[in-house]
Design a protein that fits this description.
By secondary structure, this protein is an alpha/beta fold. About 50% of the residues lie in helices and about 15% in strands. The chain contains seven helices and six strands. It has helices spanning about 15-30, 45-55, 55-60, 75-90, 105-115, 125-145, 165-175; strands at about 10-15, 40-45, 65, 95-100, 155-160, 180. A six-stranded parallel sheet has the order 1-2-3-4-5-6. Helix 2 packs parallel to helix 4 (about 75-90) and helix 5 (about 105-115) packs across helix 6. The longest helix has 22 residues, at about 125-145. The relative contact order is 0.11.
């Protein structure tokens, strides 16, 4: 229905084994109906496991959406993020790195706050929030590139409630990187 209504892509949540197993069947049904809409898989917490257990899911998707704040905590976050990126590389899939203020990695936020406190002219709370969002997106993209994902396969996205904050974050992202930016 979304594709027929004009949606240029469809993002689906893949959060259970059943959802991961259903993705190839969804793709097959769409193709049988001659619908070519790209499917983007949205993963939280267990995406690394689901894609490892269901490689046909990774193959059927057109893009993976990863929120760096929702892939795990501490060392597990780094390991699970790496697994997701390696799967994307293996299946030649682009990755949308979607940073959300509500699920920002707390270790990263603490680091940005500590760095800010050491500045001669510290930023206010809004400035710290914006910098933390930008840092999360850029650091995640850098890590993905280190893991083998080509830079042109990365799309960055940030989500905050305040429109002016969102504009400022995207301006800063565009000034500091050449990655494609997703605004939605």
């Amino acid at each position: 229905q979304l594709a027929r209504a004009g949606s240029e892509l469809v993002r689906i949540t893949v959060n259970t084994r059943e959802a991961a197993a259903a993705v190839p069947r969804i793709r097959d049904r769409l193709l049988a109906m001659q619908i070519q809409v790209p499917l983007i898989g949205d993963f939280h917490f267990n995406g690394h496991k689901l894609l490892a257990e269901h490689p046909a899911c990774a193959e059927a998707l057109d893009k993976l959406r990863i929120n760096p704040g929702n892939v795990g905590k501490g060392a597990r976050r780094d390991e699970q993020f790496a697994q997701l990126i390696e799967i994307a590389c293996r299946h030649d899939k682009p990755v949308r790195i979607g940073v959300n203020w509500g699920s920002l990695d707390q270790d990263l936020l603490a680091r940005v706050m500590d760095d800010n406190a050491r500045r001669a002219d510290p930023k206010d709370a809004t400035g710290v929030m914006r910098e933390a969002m930008v840092a999360s997106a850029l650091e995640s993209a850098e890590r993905a590139i280190e893991l083998g994902l080509p830079a042109d396969r990365i799309v960055l996205s940030c989500k905050v409630s305040g429109v002016q904050d969102l504009i400022a974050i995207y301006r800063e992202l565009s000034a500091r990187c050449d990655h494609a930016l997703h605004l939605g």
